[in-house]
Amino acid sequence: MIDIEDIHKLIQEFLCTPGCHECCQNFGVPSRTRVEDERIKTFLRSNSMQPGVAQGNSCPYLNETGCSIYPVRPLICRPYGTSPNYLCKMGVMPLRLLHEDEESEIFQLYQTHFF
Ligand code: SF4
Fold first, then answer.
1. What's the number of domains the chain is made of?
2. Residue nearest to atom 2 of ligand 1 (CA)
3. What is the whole-number distance in angstroms between the Cα of residue 88 and the centre of ligand 1?
4. Given ligand 1 and candidates 11, 13, 67, 86, which is best to mutate, with the most ligand atoms within 8 Å of its CB?
5. Which residues have C-beta atoms less than 6 Å from ligand 1?
6. Which ligand 1 atom is nearest residue 69's CA?
7. Average pLDDT of the segment spanning 82-103
8. Torsion-angle region of residue 66: left (phi > 0), alpha (psi -120 to 50) or beta?
9. So what's the pLDDT on residue 53?
10. Mean pLDDT, to the nearest integer, of 70-90?
11. pLDDT digits (tens, 9 = 90+) for 44-58
12. What is the mean pLDDT of residues 10-38?
C-alpha cells in the first residue's frame, strides 16, 4: 500500500523566495482527495486552528506568514517550481527540475491510489 507521503517524496523540496506566495494567490481552493482532506482536518485540529476562508482567488489556507497547512498541503500545491509545467514566475527552482515523464508518473500514482 502506497502512502501519500511516498508520493510527496518524489517531488524535490526547495526554498521559495521569502515572502512570496504568488502560486497560492491565484488558484482558489486547492483540489484535494479524501485522504488529503483528512490530513488537513487532523492538522488543523491538532494545532487548534480553524479552516481558512476563501478570499477572491487566494487560497483559504494562505495567511500573512504563508501556507498555514504547509506540512500537509495537498499534492497539487507541491509541484510548483519543480517541473517545466509548473515553473515559478520568480524563477526559483530546485537543483534539478522533474522530467515531464516523472511528473506524469507522480500524477498517475496519485490518481491510481488516491482517487
Ligand atoms: S494549501 Fe498552502 S501551498 Fe497550497 S495553495 Fe493553499 S496556501 Fe498555497
1. 1
2. 67
3. 14
4. 67
5. 24, 30, 59, 61-62, 67, 69, 73, 77
6. 2
7. 94
8. left
9. 84
10. 95
11. 999 999 988 878 999
12. 93
Mean pLDDT of the chain: 94
Give the residue numbers spanning the domain of 82.
4-114
State the maximum Cα–Cα separation within the chain, in Å, rounded to a whole number. Answer: 40
Assess whether pLDDT exceeds 90 at residue 96: yes
Check pLDDT > 90 for residue 27.
Answer: no
Probe target for ligand 1 pocket from 25, 26, 77, with the most ligand atoms within 8 Å of CB: 77
